[in-house]
Amino acid sequence: MKISNHILIPGLGLAASLPLLFLSNVPAVFLGGIGTAGSTGYIASGILTADARKKAQQAIARQEKALNTREQQLSTRYQNATADLERQIEVIEAKLHLAEDARDEAIKTSTARVRAIKEQRAHLIAEAKIMMGEELTRKFEADYAEKLATATADFSRREDEFYHAEGELCDQIEALQAVLSQNEDYLKEEFCKETGAEKQKWANRYKVLLDEIEKYGQAFGVVKKEGMAEVHQKDLAIAELRGQVKLLSAPRKYRGSSQDDKTANAVLEFFLNKSVSVEAEDWGRKYHQLTVWLFPKDATLPQLELLMDELQQALGLYARPVVSIDRSCFKIVCDTDAKVAAKATIKEPPLSKLEQAISDAIQVRIAAPSGSGKSVLLGNMVNYLSHTYLSTYELYDPKVTAREVWGELTPTHYSTDCLPAIFSLADTCLDRINLCKKAAENDTAPPRFNPEFHIVDELEFCYGLVDISDSKDYTSKKFATNIKTALKVGREHKIKLLFVTQSALCSDINLKKNDFFNTTSLFLGQTIIEALDSDLMGAVSAERKAVLRAEYKARLARGDKYTILVYEPEKPTEAWLCAAPSPGHYAALASESATKTGQTENPVLGGVATCPHVEGNQGQTHAAIDVASGDGSEGAREEKRNGDNPATNLATVLAHGTHCPKCSHHTASYKKKTPSSTGKVSVKCTNKECSTKTFSWKVV
Questions:
Q1: Within 10 Å of residue 193's Cβ, how many Cβ atoms?
Q2: Nearest to 157 by CA among 110, 113, 98
Q3: What share of residues in the chain are helix, strand, coil (percent, to 5)?
Q4: Given pLDDT bands bounded at 50, 70 and 90, which one contains residue 366?
Q5: Which residue has the higher pLDDT, 109 or 339?
Q6: Is 374 in contact with 458 (CB distance < 8 Å)?
Q7: pLDDT at 609
Q8: Which helix (H) or strand (E) holds 667?
Q9: Is the pTM of this model over 0.90?
Q10: Are the C-beta atoms of 265 and 254 separated by less than 8 Å?
Q11: DSSP secondary-structure letter at 188?
Q12: Which of 22, 54, 490, 644 lies 20 to 30 Å (CA to CA) from residue 414?
């Protein structure tokens, strides 16, 4: 913004005059007051009245010019008088210095002459005493004393003359100083006479300007009030026009009041909230499908396709909506039939499918926040494993949780005692690898290891203990190395991890996604949504994820408290939901089947004996099968690879029904079935979606 010269120049004058007010010089203070008053008045008058400002500026310029001329004249006279006095003082001081120098020189000369005369006198006296005797010496001393008195009198006279001349010189200096003081007083008096009249004139002019400023201020207030009223009226008109523009530019909506109109408007609002510019065009219903047509403004088809999963979750639809181009509009087909969603949303797999996933898993992870049922699930899994597999168990309880969390087992390590055991996992794996190495080098059969289950609750907390530990042996890098080694070695050397985390993210325990390629993950609670959005399940299709989200939402709406999302790395494109077993489920089963327990060999783990059990209501056959033990383990594994499921208690299996080993679908009872000549019983899977079709049990 350009500043007017009428404001800039007086502002500079005001800035130059203000410092003069703080000086001790009276003329400067007076000039400062005049300058300050003049600049202030000039600025005020210049802002309010252009004409008065121009005239005042001209008058001020003339007055300032005359005042500056008079001030320059007085300053010149004062400077000349001061210069004359200074010159006279300098001449007198020069004469005084010369006289003082002459006096000092005379004193020095007289002192030297006296000292020389004394020395000469002493010398002459000494010579006279030697040469002339006592009489001549006395005569000589008398002459010398007379001469000395004469010289001393002459010196005193000269000294009196010098002091007299010095007094006259001081009197002259005092007289000159008196004259200088009189001249200074005269000049001050003349200056005050000249400036007094100007000061009074300026005071009168300043008063007149203040009166004019007050008048213009009143006029300005009236004009401002009128202007503000006019601005307010214009603001009201603008607001009204803006409302009309907003109403006219708002996207069209569906005007009906039916449920389909509300659903169509919900679809429209969803896209508008996602900053997708569309507006209502039409909608239509055909059976359980609602088709919504949206007119595009600047939206594109790929932009809408990316939002279909979110739209399905927002509307609570079973199926993923389909979007396409039709009649120059976006055509969105939504399956809104509640009965179809109720029948197809929740598909409850048997518990044996979860047991099969745990048995087939190389490693198992439970990811669940607090309060989502992880303690109940961990206790059930501990009981299931301890009842099913006769193995070595290492239980890590860094948080020292409730006793019932661990089922019927007791933790091996507590609190910070867990760290040495965790940091020895890599050594345990390496010891088993070295034994296999020696067997390979000696061309002997590989050793058969006793399986070890390492169950940790929680692994994230152990990772936190590493960070706060003072020991340099425990670092986050070594922690990750030990966990990775156990995760990678697993199946071949019978090291099996079952650990709990509160987050579905691998990075929270310093691991990466590829470290979990051998790990079956069980997600509960909020981690189900996190897992579906994570990179770990990147191979699962978007459609499948949308179905899982809808199913999980339906389970929550139904009141299911504990739901598990199972992800098996051997089936990277699949994931499924199931209900968690009830608290104490396997403990109750163990007490019921204690008298029927037998020990046989597990074909999957190789050398792990099982204690079979029979589940009451669901007819689970996976854990009820007695597997052959001893030397036939290799043959049993070969038969399993060929599709035959070894079993001995065939009557129990057929009496309670069986489940397909592929899809875990329950098949009806086969009491009338009899083994063939080879000892096999063929069973057909009744699930139309299953690719197994038929499977068989072999009587060993």
A1: 9
A2: 110
A3: 60, 15, 25
A4: very high
A5: 109
A6: no
A7: 36
A8: strand 666-667
A9: no
A10: yes
A11: H
A12: 490
